[in-house]
Amino acid sequence: MMQWETVIGLEVHVQLATQSKIFSGASTAFGAEPNTQACAVDLGLPGVLPVLNEGAVAMAVRFGLGINAEIPETSVFDRKNYFYPDLPKGYQTSQMYQPIVGPGEVEITLDDGGTKRIRVHHAHLEEDAGKSLHEDYQGMTGIDLNRAGTPLLEIVSEPDMRSAREAAAYLKAIHAIVTYLGISDGNMAEGSMRCDVNVSVRPRGQETLGTRAEIKNVNSFRFVEKAIAFEIERQIELIEDGGTVVQETRLYDPEADETRSMRTKEQANDYRYFPCPDLLPVVLDQAYVDHLRANLPELPAEKRARFQDELGLSAYDAGVLASSRAMAEYFEVVKDVSGDAKLAANWVQGELAGQLNKQGLDIADSPVSASQLGGLVARVKDETINGKAAKQVFAALWEGEGDSADAIIDARGLRQVTDSGAIEAMIDQVISDSPVQVAQYRDAEPDKRGKMIGYFVGQVMKASRGTANPQQVNALLKEKLDDA
Amino acid sequence: MALEPQDVRRAAFLARLGLNDDEAAGYVDDLSRILEMVDRLQSVDTTGVTPLAHPLDATQRLRADEVTESDQRERFQRCAPAVENGLYLVPRVVE
Amino acid sequence: MHDKTLTELATALAAGEFSSRELTETLLARIERLDGELNSFITVTGERAIAAADAADAARARGEAGPLTGLPLALKDIFCTRGVRTSCGSRMLDNFEAPYDATVVEKLAAAGSVSLGKTNMDEFAMGSSNENSYYGPVKNPWDLTAVPGGSSGGSAAAVAAGLVPAALGTDTGGSIRQPAAFCGITGLKPTYGRVSRYGMVAYASSLDQGGPLARSAADCALLLGAIAGHDLRDSTSVARGVPDYTAELGESLSGLKIGLPREYFGDGLDPAVEMAVREAIRVYESLGATVREVSLPHTSLAIPAYYVIAPAEASSNLSRYDGVRFGHRCDNPRDLIDLYQRSRAEGFGDEVKRRILIGTHTLSEGFFDAYYKKAQQVRRLIRQDFLDAFEDVDVLMGPASPTPAFDLGANKDPVSMYLQDIYTIAVNLAGIPGISVPAGFVDQRPVGLQVLGPHFAEQRLLNVAHRFQQATDWHRRQPAFGQENA
């Protein structure tokens, strides 16, 4: 059997979180009534002209700095000419030859916790198109141009990914970087991040690339993985059956979980790129770039390293916690409030992540705030409560049954009993109430006793309504049972 | 560089200009002669000459990221050929 | 009133000899009487003009009059004018009432001027004879069998015929200077970027520039001062102060160094035109200027370079006319492609289609380097020719056009029509300013002297033209057309 290697490259379109559009002063807010945010420039009325938004430039440059890319002094806007009803001017203003961001690289985390560097070929600024609404308007399609002119950063990777998992990890890494930088809300459901995937296969060991198919507009992490998985299988099957892969554009259908060929009938496009005569070359002076660089926030890779080196977290924990800005920010609050990074990491990834997952919630929508969880972890750390009580407190916070861990602990009397006199009294009571079990215990070989003591621990914990310190209970029980 | 009819048809398709065969034939002749005139450009050696896109050596001014436009849909759609519910209408687009 | 210059009218209005309303009504009546024959206006905005004139008179009464207050003007129908049809001479925009004002329209209105309407033009400013208008050709008031030139033919003819004292035009390859020459008036193409292009329907964005056509250089100076300046809505407009263009008018030309480009006096130049131009240059010598021959070696490549760059930009600029958001839409489109193809086929005229096709072809894959890139390289050489020449001389002079106005219908062939622009087109490629000044007649048809200067030398050009107009009266001559009942 032939061994196949998959080669994947991604083009990620990120909507930049500017207030106004890339070439006009119209708002970019999502969800407005159709065409109420399409101004004269966005509509391409006769005579209008574009003026470039500094906010979009700054965001693009910050992205470039965030992936250690070259930032060329000069970039140029070109026109990509084609007709489509949601493209008002009959051309898209983009950057073909001199993009604003040059080559850089993104580090991704692999399933085994290792990392891999994916090269970014370049990233360029361009304007988004409007939307075609295919509901029936007298048998016609409706065009809403509110989105037209929204700034996009198109990030083009080198074909460095070798599996669907790597592609998904890359997309997640890009998502993390743009959200860390605050240059995009990264909302894939609203189309703030969209992805075109280039996939080809080649026999392992072969140098030259196979013919690629481009899968357009794959709009979730999960779909990227599934679309690629399907496409890889399709291409391998096709070749093994004696066919050849055609270079074409395909569309992923999530319902059928398959990719399908698009626009086969249409004549090949010829976009006739040429420099946009309405815009002048964008020249960035060094001071401007330096200023942006000086104000970059800590990015995922740096955070991951700090979590490992300074907080002593494992590579895996550091990777997971740094993977999204929301997660990292949440964790850091829990850590600061509780004063214990490892405990905080365990709680964020354990109890919290489990509950969020179960309910299908984002960390941003967590009913338990980071400071609430931090307060809870602090009480675990100072042994005010034991682990069992902590779970009760967490559940209560989740259900909104108290404002803080302390309030719940007090209201429910969950404070851990560490007074050995009180614990001894409870132990004595249990021993006198369980003569049969005590006899069995004492008859048993010493190496069996370890297991049997569990029964007594359980009884004491029950008697204390879970508040007794389990370690103390264990030690005292052993003393009393063994020494008799 | 003389043009062939298919060159004109291709350009007309890219430019979305409907042409009938007679019109296309007329343009083959016109455009060929225009290109012949244009071909005089090849007579000069431009090796090493940077293309000039703008007559002044100016650079792009950037505007502040501020919303300065308000909704003018009603006025803008007064000159639109077909609208409904604020949407511009076009013949059904099939994906 | 109709034969006065803008400057004279301003003085008369200030002196209270007549009101702006009287002036406006007189001119509207003249348009009504004469323009049926001339066809220089596409849309006359009489009611708005009267309202603006009344407002100007009221402002004057309050003591708030500026230099342009109450002065009637006309706008080439390429400038978007809110609430008024802005057709660009095309069926495509026959139904287009612009929803906003061009920057220059705003500025002229704010200055208190009175727009009488929108003037005829070659469709989308593509042409040199005004015969490419959906609204029919314009006639030359000096000879109704001749063209007025193009593409700002309506503006030039209206000024020459005394329908309006001045008008705005646009110049992409000579479209102000050549019709000014053909109609015996003064027309200035400013430096690229001097006048905002916002709201000026684009033909070729890196070449287009708006400017005044008027009866004198002094009038052009007055108008340029009102329309020039940095516009935040036009990235290509230049952030540079606007001088008082009238301030230096009348300064001595003693010591002025005039260059005569050898290439502008060669084959194809009508000897009678050459004679008139050389006579004008002798006038300058008598005013103290010195003359020398210079060379612009890449002149013969200007038209080829232009017919790559301008159609390429146009093919893209005109893609927005797709029948979706504004403009002509065909009846009952079968599908999307049909909507595009038929709307555009019906909406655009022959010359526009020709240039869209040329531009589309030269930009397409496999041709880009040979045409577009090459033309841009040659464009740099052409600009360098001028920069080099201006190292040695202050201005360049030559004919605005190789012939006087030709007959309507005489130039059927597109290429021979293009070659008419031999002396004007390089100026747009280089982005420098140029002015056309009346300098005599050949067979009762006017001849224009073209004066060129370095980037932003408008003040110098206007003074050079003004001094000539103090020494000659060619610019005061009036055609017989429209005089009998004046």
Summary of the model, kept short:
The complex is a heterotrimer of chains A (484), B (95) and C (486). With 484 residues, chain A is an alpha+beta fold.
Structural summary, described in words:
- The complex is a heterotrimer of chains A (484), B (95) and C (486).
- Chain A folds into three domains: 4-290, no CATH class; 298-412, no CATH class; 420-483, Orthogonal Bundle (Arc Repressor Mutant, subunit A), CATH 1.10.10.410.
- Chain A has 16 helices and 16 strands.
- Chain A has helices at 40-43, 54-66, 164-181, 221-240, 286-294, 300-309, 315-322, 325-338, 341-359, 370-381, 387-398, 405-412, 420-433, 435-443, 446-463, 470-483, and strands spanning 4-15, 52-53, 74-75, 78-81, 91-94, 104-109, 115-127, 131-137, 140-144, 151-157, 193-203, 213-218, 248-253, 258-261, 274-275, 282-283.
- Chain A has an eight-stranded mixed β-sheet. Chain A has a three-stranded antiparallel β-sheet with strand order 5-4-15, with no helix packed on it. A two-stranded antiparallel sheet of chain A has the order 3-16.
- In chain A, strand 12 (213-218), helix 4 (221-240) and strand 13 (248-253) form a beta-alpha-beta unit.
- The mean pLDDT of chain A is 92.
- Chain B is an alpha+beta fold and 95 residues long.
- Chain B is built from three helices and three strands.
- Chain C has 486 residues and is of the alpha/beta class.
- Chain C contains 15 helices and eleven strands.
- Classes of the chains: A alpha+beta (484), B alpha+beta (95), C alpha/beta (486).
- Chains in contact: A-B, A-C, B-C.
- At the B-C interface, helix 1, helix 2 and strand 3 of B face helix 9, helix 10, helix 11, helix 12 and helix 13 of C.
Helical content of chain A stands at 40-55%
Q: What is the CA–CA distance across the termini of chain B? A: 38 Å
Tell me the total number of β-strands of chain A.
16
Placed side by side, the strands forming the largest sheet of chain A appear as: 6-7-10-1-11-12-13-14
Low-confidence stretches of chain B: none
The Rg value of chain A, from CA coordinates, equals 30 Å
Please state the overall shape of chain A, judged from the principal axes of the Cα atoms: elongated
Count of alpha/pi helices of chain A: 16
Count of spatially separate domains of chain A? 3
Number of H- or I-type helical stretches of chain B: 3
Taken in chain order, the helices and strands of chain B follow as: HHEHEE
Work out the strand percent of chain B: 5-15%
